[in-house]
Each structure stands twice: as structure tokens, then as C-alpha cells.
Amino acid sequence: MADTHSVIGTKNKKGQTFTDTWKMMNDAPRTPSFFTGSEVIKEALRRASCDVMIAYPITPQSEAAALIGELFAEGYIGDYFRGESEFAVMSQCAGAAFGGARVFTTTAGPGTMRAMENFPMWSGARLPIQMIVTCRGINSPLSIQPDTLEIAYLLNTGMLVWHAETAQDFFDWILKGYMVSEEPDVHLPLALCCDGFFVTHTKDVVNLTPADMCLPPYDPYRSPVPCMDMECPPVRMMRDPFVMKSNYISYATHASWQQEVWAAVERSRKHTIKWINGLIETENTDAEVLIVASGTAVSQGREAIRLLEDEGIRCGLVKIKSLRPWPGEEIREATKNAKHIIVPEFNVTGWLAKEIKATIPNSERVNAGPRVCGGMTMPPEIIVSEIKTLLGMRTMSMAGRGS
Amino acid sequence: MSKEKIKISEDLYDIMPSDYQDLVKSATYGKEDRGWKDIGNSKELIEQHSLCAGCPESMAFRYILASLPNPEDTVMVGSTGCTSLVFPMVAVHNIHSLFGNQNAIASGLKRALSVRFPGRTKDVVVLAGDGATVDIGLDMTLQAWFRQEKFTTICFDNELYANTGGQESGLMQKGFVAKMAPVGKLFDKVRLPEIARESGCHYVIQCTVSKPSLVEKVVRNAVMIAREIGPTYLQLYTPCILEIGKNSMEGLQEMRDSEKPTERFAYREYISEPAKQLLAEISAKDKEKKAAAKQLASQGA
């Protein structure tokens, strides 16, 4: 802690003041600014005291990744380059994090999938890298449109996984995310997901923290595993590498380390609750009908609730902010009064509905949909229609949907 | 890291492992003229290894670790394979993450160390097998060279996948019958040294590890050039005696046979102009130092 605290109040080479993160995020004045999601990522990074950012072009994160390059040229980032593929980029991020740097990267869709082998390695090596995932389709034929299927693949990597609804979430969570990731009892990578285009390419009013304040730098010596910089003694790690041993002690070592990674995900819960004000947000959970969603499906849910109110139908909302750690207790509590739980999703398989079904009692209450995918938008009307059908009410047929 | 950092508190001395005590007492961190001749009269930076008896790779490991010019500030990057069985017993920080991504890891690592320790020397050395370097990791091997990343890549070329049981690799000779090459390998040994030169490496060496003095020289040169100028590449023949049907004591002869002028591992080098200049400067400084030491000695006498 000493290292981190000693710099508070001092200035970096760009004249920004290293500021206590809690004060910066909660007490410092905010300036409303009208930005695209990509620009918001850049503004968050300006304040993140990031050592290394590694970029690769893939829609829809290319703009954000290039904008961070501009920050590097201005001197806000320690180093920055374009890697050769997402697999390589995620390994380069790992190398930089092994070397004690605060690391940032962005990816999307097929890039997430190509890089996948790296993610359990990041968690296992306890590298607190932050990766923005601007979700897009991963199906064939080629699609660049919004679709959240890739999040399902990230859920079992041992990474922390958060799902932002708005650009404001994004701005705050990029900065707060490092605070959770870098806690010594967590020290895990964070996949900060958003729905591509809907968040990255639309403009929104975002309240920014002062540009002359930045996060305290990362202190790699608070890591639970040694930083690979030859600044601490290079002890021999083991008598024989466990990879070559087919015996109980080898299996037990691997098993206990995996359990420790997931225990660290659990330990992140208290920090996550503190920093992003709970793993979920709720409205009117006494209603019989409840929309439970993450990402921009939450925004569409809000619109649907407004439309339903006009017709006298009361509907509550649960916004899931963190998918890992998973807010099981919170969801059980929030859904205990609900007769119908509607889970709108931007993917074909309905992974969120499956997670919720596995969490709550009487899971037949879960309505796994409406779902859109492949870049389709989700008009609030289809959520309304789904809810009215569930309630046995007549619904208007919608053009082109065959109902 | 200074040698001070590995010192043991007196109170804890007796409970530290003996290999750690030895590291503190008699390893060669910080010794300026360290080299292969230290083997046998100082603590090596490698403990017992778990390679096959007589494996030339184990010799190569010992020579390389004895020859690193700056082990107290060197981080090594390995890959999956026989080398990954040795690294846990090596007394410099080392990273194993995935199979084939070693040059990507090293790229990020070197840049992070440069950001975190401006003005200080932190060397990065990659050491991986030929499957990792040339097959699964070729993209990242070459791209690191294109980008002129300042670290050394060492490939232990045993011409096959040894750790998985002797399958065909890109560096295998044409015609060699192996697992996954049931009728003999159908294409030529990949010419990575030439590709390395064309890809921007400033120092490219192909040799065997039969002569420790040669290994010492090329490792030192490769690290110094990577530190100051750009990427360097060493391709070292470390035959897998097990998979080519040799006995434990035959590894050295196999290397000697293969390094004859007409054979595929005849010594070959490429040194770029800036690298030549650097080596000349280093050699001139060494001579100066030796002359000064000689003078001092004669004055003393």
C-alpha cells in the first residue's frame, strides 16, 4: 500500500494529479460531455495511469483502440503498439502484465474467440489485465453486427466479467475495474463487456471526472504471485514441474490452484459491490412481472416498462452488472415475488436465461426471451408483446414477425 | 536486481533450501566475465533437470545460463515442450504461458520492463523448441522480428516434437520417417535462419552446442546486440537422442557429425552492419580493460 499511497497528490509527466480513486470517482466534480462510446473509452484511459495498451483492428472496437493510440502519442500511455492477431495481442498483454505493467486492451467477437486460449492463462497467472469486449456476432457467414454470444464463452475462464449498459457505466467501470482487479486478494483479469455499436457508436451524455486527475499507478508488488522483473529473488519453484507428473500431488496442485482462482472471483464480490454499488440494480421488484437483463437489453427493458405502464401493467426490472462474480443471492432475493421473469437477450442461445434458471427456485417462472441475434435490434414492443402473451392478453401483430 | 536482494536473513539461513543457500554463496550474479568456465566452480543457475539422461538440451541449458551477461536482470520466456520441464528449476525469472506465444509474451514483457525501468538494463531471452518457434508460433516469432523487438530468440532445434513423442516438425529433415510423417517428411527443413535475416534480425547464428565456448560467445553477442540494436536469433542443434535412435552417450558425437562443413548444422552466421560495429566496440573495450588489468598487475609486481 505504501508505494501506491506515497504518490497521491503528486503529478505525473502530463501534469495530472495522482488521486485517491474513491475520491476521484465519488467526490470530484463531473463534467457532462457528449461523446461516442469509443471516445468515452479514450477518456477513461486518459485517467487510468495505464502502462501498456496493445491494439488490433476489429469492428466495432477499432475506433477506441486507435483513439488510445492518440493518447499514447500525447504521452498518457507508457507504450502502445498494434499486435498481429488477437491471440498474439492477448499474449503480449500477458507478457506486459507478467512484467508488472497496468495493461489495457480491447477486442470484439471473432477476436475474443481467437484469443480464447489466453483467458484461462491470464486468470491462472493472476494477471489483472483489463479487456474491453465490444460484443459482435461470431457466427458464419461473417457478421459484424451486435450480438452477445461471445460473453457466454468468457464466463468460465476465471476472469471477472462485467456487462455495461451505457457509456456512463463504461467510463466509471474502466477506472473502478482496475481497483477491483488489482486487489491483492483478487488479482484477476476483467472482461468489461458492452454491446458493440449500440454503446460504442452512439453518442450519449457522460459525466466525466476531471481530466487533470488520474488513478494511482499499479503496484505490481501487491500481487499474490511474483512479478517477473528480477526485482525479487528467483527461487526454484518446484522439484519437478507438475505438468510431467501423473500422480496425486500433481493433480491436487492443479485442482487447488483452479479452486483458488475461483475463490479469488468470489473474494472480488465485496470489492465489486463497494465500487459499482452492488452486482445488480433493481426497480419495483414487488411487481409480478420482472425483466431481468444485462447490457443494452436493460435499456430496451426500461422502454418496455414505460410502454406497459401506459397500459396499466406494472413491471419491475433487475439490471445485472456483474456476471462474474455471479449475483446469485441478489437475484434470488430480487425475484422472490415475481411470477413471470422475462429475460430479453441479444444472442441466439439465451445464456443469461440459463444462468438465471440455474440460480432461482421455481425456474419455470423464467421466460427465456425475447431473443434477437445477428445484429437485429430489439424493439421494446417485442418485449411488451412477450409479456402480454405471458399474461394471456391480446397483442398486436408486428410487421415481418409472422405473429 | 542487485545481489543484495537475494541475501538471506541470518535468522532464517538454516531453514532455507540448500540450493538457495548455494545461490547466495557462490552463484555468478553480477560477475562481469561470467561464462561456461564457471561451471564446476560456482553455483549454476539451474538445479537438477528432468530431461532424459544425456540430452544435449541439458548441456545447452547449462551453457546458456552460464553465459547470460546479466542474469540478475534477465527474464527468460519459454514455451511448452521439453524446455518447459526445465524452467521451473532455473534461477532467473521465467515465464511459461501457452504453446507458441513466447515471442508475443516477450514483446509485451520487454516493453513493460522498458516502461517501468527507464535507463536500466533488463534483458529478455526467449528459449523454445522448434515446434514452438517455427510451427505453432511462427507468426509471432516473425512479427516480433518485423517490429524490431529488442530481445533474443533462441530455438532448440531437435528437428521434431520431442516432448509429445517424436512427431514431424517444420525443422525436421525431408524424408525423415516419424510419427505424423508415416511415409517420410515430404518437404524441406524450413530455412529459418535465412528467414530471420530477411525478417530483420541483426544477429543470426546456426550451430550445435558441442562447444561450450562457442555457445558462450554467441549467447553473449546475441544478448548484447538485442539490448542495444534489435532482435537476434540463435538456432542451436540439440538432437533428441531418444527419438533419433541414439544412446545417452551419443549426443555429443551426433552434434559433431552434424556440424561438419558439408552438413546441415555447419556453423553459419549473419551479422548486420550496426551489430558488427557494436561487437567491435565491445571487443575494443574488453581489450582496453585487459590491457589496463595487465598494467596494474605488472605495476603490482
Which residues of chain A sit in consecutive blocks of at least 5 with pLDDT less than 50?
A: none
Q: Please provide the ordered H/E string of secondary-structure elements of chain A.
A: HEHEHEHEHEHHEHEHEEEHEEHEEHEHEH
Q: Helix tally of chain A?
A: 14
Largest sheet of chain A: 7 strands, mixed
The portion of residues assigned to helices of chain A is 25-40%
The average pLDDT value of chain B, as a whole number, equals 94
CATH topology of chain B: Rossmann fold
Per CATH, the superfamily of chain B is: Thiamin diphosphate (ThDP)-binding fold, Pyr/PP domains
Tell me the name of the CATH class of the largest domain in chain A: Alpha Beta
CATH fold assignment of the largest domain in chain A: Rossmann fold
Write out key terms for the chains shown.
heterodimer, A: alpha/beta, Rossmann fold, 17% strand, globular, B: alpha/beta
Layout of strands and helices, then pairs:
The complex is a heterodimer of chains A (403) and B (301).
Chain A: H1 2-6, E1 17-18, H2 21-26, E2 31-36, H3 37-46, E3 52-55, H4 62-74, E4 79-82, H5 86-98, E5 103-107, H6 109-114, H7 118-124, E6 130-135, H8 149-154, E7 160-163, H9 167-181, E8 190-195, E9 203-208, E10 213-214, H10 248-276, E11 280-283, E12 289-293, H11 296-310, E13 315-320, E14 322-324, H12 328-334, E15 340-342, H13 351-357, E16 366-367, H14 380-390
Parallel strand pairs in A: 1-10, 3-4, 3-5, 5-6, 6-8, 7-8, 12-13, 12-15, 15-16
Antiparallel strand pairs in A: 2-9, 7-14, 11-13
Chain B: H1 18-26, H2 56-67, E1 74-77, H3 83-86, E2 94-95, H4 102-116, E3 123-129, H5 130-136, H6 138-146, E4 152-157, H7 192-198, E5 203-208, H8 212-228, E6 232-237, H9 251-258, E7 268-271, H10 273-300
